Amino acid sequence: MAKNFINGDAVRQLAALLDETGLTEIEYETGTFRVRVGRQGVAASVPVVSNALGASATPSTPASPPVDVAHPGAVTSPMVGTVYTAPEPGTPDFVKIGDEVSEGQTLLLIEAMKTFNEIRSPRAGTLTRVLIENEQPVEYGDPLLIVE
Q: What is the pLDDT of residues 4-54, one digit of tens each?
């Protein structure tokens, strides 16, 4: 019979990452080990809006309509982490509204567990909307950009 083992160090590291990024939940899996850490009762000073699919996001401006993650041009987050719009602090963003992008072009970075992951364009087109800000925490499935 297999013995259940809780890796306390991993749980503490994930809890610290929640505090650092402001996220409400994080999940980590490797081999046979899987842990999900979340917090309840987090006070929010910004209202949360939900779209038809149940995904939530905080509005950046009152005039901007919520973006449906099912939008055909939506580039969504493949992971939980922190978004970086430029390769390094003080350098220009990878892309800006109006730029023509090619399939596979790097659009931004998402840092997760001290690893920077390139988020590449799934299609060629024009960048029409940027839905995130630099150093903003994101969750899996959050819409990031619109490429049409």
A: 566 677 777 777 777 777 777 777 777 666 777 776 544 333 344 444 444
- Other C-beta atoms closer than 10 Å to the C-beta of 110 total 21
Contact 14, 26 (CB under 8 A): yes
Contact 132, 83 (CB under 8 A): yes
Domain chopping of the chain, boundaries: 8-38, 67-147
With a pLDDT cut of 70, the percent of the chain lying above it is 72
Calpha distance 133→85 (Å, rounded):
7
CA–CA separation, 115 and 97 (whole Å): 26
Tell me the three state secondary structure of residue 134. Answer: coil
Would you tell me how many other CB atoms lie within 10 Å of the CB of residue 19? 9
pLDDT in tens, 53-66: 444 444 444 444 45
Residue 99 one-letter amino acid? D
Please, which residues bridge with residue 56 across strands? Answer: 50
Architecture of domain 67-147: Beta Barrel (2.40)
pLDDT top residue among 136 and 71: 136
Query: What's the whole-model pTM score?
Result: 0.55
Q: Rg for the chain (alpha carbons), in Å?
A: 17
